[in-house]
Specification:
By secondary structure, the chain is α/β, with parallel strands linked by helices. 46% of the residues lie in helices and 15% in strands. The protein is built from 6 helices and 5 strands, in the order βαβαβαβαβαα. Strands 2-1-3-5-4 form a 5-stranded parallel β-sheet, with helices on both faces. Helix 4 (90-98) links the parallel strand 4 (84-86) and strand 5 (104-108). The protein is globular and about 40 Å long. The mean pLDDT is 96.
Length: 156
């Protein structure tokens, strides 16, 4: 599996730790930045880059990190068809895959430490979408995108 990683300047250290952790487990990791704490990057830039890479098929899933995880996930969720969930513990990370088939896990570098962030990633990437009643709900979410006319937006 190929994972896209993105962050703003507040989360470079945690992103690097998580990339190393996932590479040690055999995942291929692609870094979409930010690359340095001195490189001031607004979180919507990285959120969009990773989400669009998933839509284009360059990567399978993503990990996004900003101060809280909220802003960067909001940006990613604006890309049609993308589902990003913010997690501060492993239980939610498992459920956003099992119930919501999220392609992206987001977290806050100011909220979770590196060991907890590793557990969040492990839970997210080891879980499988359960389908069934959850698939119906994903269809309902997709219908909202269709109602607003952006479900079939071209991939950028």
């Amino acid at each position: 599996m190929k994972i896209g990683f993105g962050c703003d300047h507040t989360a470079v250290e945690l992103k690097n730790i998580l990339m190393e952790h996932m590479q040690a487990q055999g995942y291929e990791c692609v870094d979409y930045g930010s690359y340095s704490p001195e490189e001031k990057r607004d979180y919507p830039v990285s959120g969009r880059l990773v989400a669009e890479a998933i839509r284009r098929g360059e990567v399978d899933k993503g990990v996004l990190i900003c101060g809280t995880g909220v802003g960067i996930s909001l940006a990613a969720n604006k890309v049609p068809g993308i589902r990003a969930g913010v997690c501060s513990e492993p239980y939610t990370a498992r459920l956003i895959t099992e119930h919501n088939d999220c392609q992206i896990v987001a977290m806050g570098a100011r909220v979770v430490g590196s060991e907890l962030a590793k557990m969040i990633c492990d839970s997210f990437f080891s879980a499988q979408f359960q389908g069934g009643r959850h698939a119906k709900r994903l269809g309902m979410i997709a219908a909202i995108e269709e109602d607003y006319g952006y479900a079939d937006a071209p991939v950028k």
